[in-house]
Request: fold
Amino acid sequence: MVVQGQRRVSARIQEKQEEKQRLVKRRMELLGDVVKGGAEEQNEVPSQTTSSAVAGDDLPNGSVVNVSEKSDTARVKETLRLFNKHYLQFVQEEEKRCAKPTVNRKASKSKSKKAKTKKEETQEDAKAKAKRPDLKAVSKMMLNNETLFSEKRIGDIPGIKVGYQFYSRCEMVAVGFHSHWLNGIDYMGASYSKGKYKNYKFPIATAIVLSGMYEDDLDNAEDVVYTGQGGHNLTGNKRQSRDQVLARGNLALKNCVEQSVPVRVIRGHKSSSSYTKKVYTYDGLYKVIQYWAEKGISGFTVFKFRLRRLEGQPILTTNQVFFTHGRVPQSVSEIRGLACEDITGGQENFPIPATNMVDDPPVAPTGFLYCKSLQVAQNIKLPTNVVVGCNCKGECVDPRICACAKLNGSDFPYVHRDGGRLVEPKDVVFECGPICGCGPDCVNRTSQQGLKYRLEVFRTPKKGWAVRSWDFIPAGGPVCEYIGVLKRTEDVDVSENDNNYIFDIDCLQTMKGLDGRERRLRDVSIPTIDCLDRPEDQRSECLPEFCIDAGTTGNIARFINHSCEPNLFVQCVLSSHHDVKFARVVLFAADNIPPLQELTYDYGYVLDSVCGPDGKLKMQVILSWWFRWLCFCSLAGYNQPF
Reply:
C-alpha cells in the first residue's frame, strides 16, 4: 500500500496507517445508517461541516459527538497558540521600537561633544522596554473576541486538567481560566445572578492564584491559608500597607464558605527557564472551609481563608517551595538508564544522552552515523546563485534597509527574545546567508546557530526511540534541523530498503495547502511557481523532487515521533540559496513545551487518500472525527502522543 502526499515516508508508519484504515472500516460497519452507502461509493464523501450524532455505545464514555466539533483540549491549545502569535508580534514591535533609540543615540553621540551619562542611558533603556507585549496580546484577543470561555464558570475548565502549566498570567486570561492578569482572586459578580446561577448569592470566587505575594500566606499543599486581597504594598516587598475590607474578592471567598462552592487553585513558582521567569500550575479544586479576620504581620487587618483540596483528584504536581513537575537530571550521574552519554560524539552545542529503561541491559541507538550538517548525494548539485544578500554589519537591526528582511515581507521573521523565536509559521523563511555582511549571531540566522536546548533520546515501551527536552522550550523556539542525505525521491525505494527515515521536502505543497498541509502566511517574496495555480490533476511538477534520507546518516531529528496533536511544526528555510525545492527543513516549537515532555510533529499524512499499486483510491475516510479518534496516536492505551 502506498500513502500519497505524506511528509515523511516511513515503512513503519505505513503499517500502522493500514491498521488504522482497517479499524475505521470496522467502525463504519458498526455505524450503520450514519455512514450507509459511504464506504460503498467512494465519491460520496460527506462534508466535514456536517453534524452527525451517533449511538453513544460506539463512542468513548458513551457520549454523542458532533463530527465537526473540536475537542476542548484542542480549542485550548489553539487559543494559546493564537496568544503566542500575538505576543511575539508585539515583542517584534517592541524590539523595533527599542532599536530606534539605540541607533539614534549612537548617531547623536558622534555629533554631540557631550554624550549622555551611563545612568541617563540606563533610564532611557528602561523606559524603552517598559511596554508589556503579553498584556497587549490578550487585550487584542479580547477586542477581537478570540478568547476562550469568556463566561466565567464554577469548577474545572474544559480542556485544562490538573497539572496544566501556564507561563503567563495573560495565558490564563486568554483561555478563561482566570480573568485578571494581576488580581489573585477571580470571582463572578451580580451579572451572573440570572440563568443557571440564579440560586447563588453573589459575588462567588471561581479561582485564586498562590504566588507568594502576601507575607501572611501559608501553603501546605493539601491545606492552604490564603490571605485576602487589598492593602498590599505593590512595591514588591510583600508587606501590607493598610487594612483589608470584606468586599470584592474577599466577600466572594466568604460566600464560597457559606455555599460550599469550590475554587480552582493555581500555584505560581519561579522558573529561570520560562520566558516570563514564572510558571503557573493548576493544582485542582479546593473547598473554602473557613474564614476570619486578624492582625497581620505588619499590624494591619487581613482576611484569612482556609482551603482544603477536594479528594479524588490527581496528585499534586507542585508544593509550596519547589516546582516538581518532572525531575531534570543535573549531572550524568543522575541519569537513570543511561545507555550513551552523547550520541553526537561532541558535535553539538550540548551532549545528547540516550536513556533506556525498557531493555535490560540498556542499549543505545545503533545503525546510523550522527551528522550535524546536511550531506548531498553525488548526483545532486545545490544551487549557488543567490541573487541578493544584505549589507548589514555585525547584526541585522533595521528591516527597512536589510535586503533579507524585505524577502520576508519587510520584517525579520524572528525576535531576539529567549535566544531567538520564530514569530509565526510562514511559507518559507529567508535567512541571511554566506554572502551577507552580518555575523553568525545575527537574529536572522537563528536556525543556523545549532542546538539551543538540552535534548535526550529515550526508549519507550511501545514506540521505539523518542526525544524530549531537559529545558523549557518557548513557542517559536528552534528545536533542530532535519539532517540526513539529500537525495532525489525517485532514487529512494522505501519498501525495498525498509527505510523509516525519509522526509520529503514539500515546501511547494505547504504554499498551497496541498495534500492536507496547513496553509501558511503568504507575505514572503517567492518566485511565481506555475504548477501551484494549475488544476489539481495537472500538478505533477509540484510533487516533491527531493528528500532527506536519515536512515544511515542523520541527527537528533530522526528520532522524533509523529503525533496528530504535535508540539512542533515544520518550517522550510532558505539561506545559502533561494530554490524552494532544496529548502532546509527545520522543526520549531508550536507551543510552550515544559521540560521532559516528548517532542512530536505531524508527519503530514493525508487521511483520505490511501491508494493501491494501481493508483486507484482503495478507501476514503467518511467521518474525519472517527478517523481521528481511531488514529494510532490514541490506540493501544497510549497515554502520550505517538
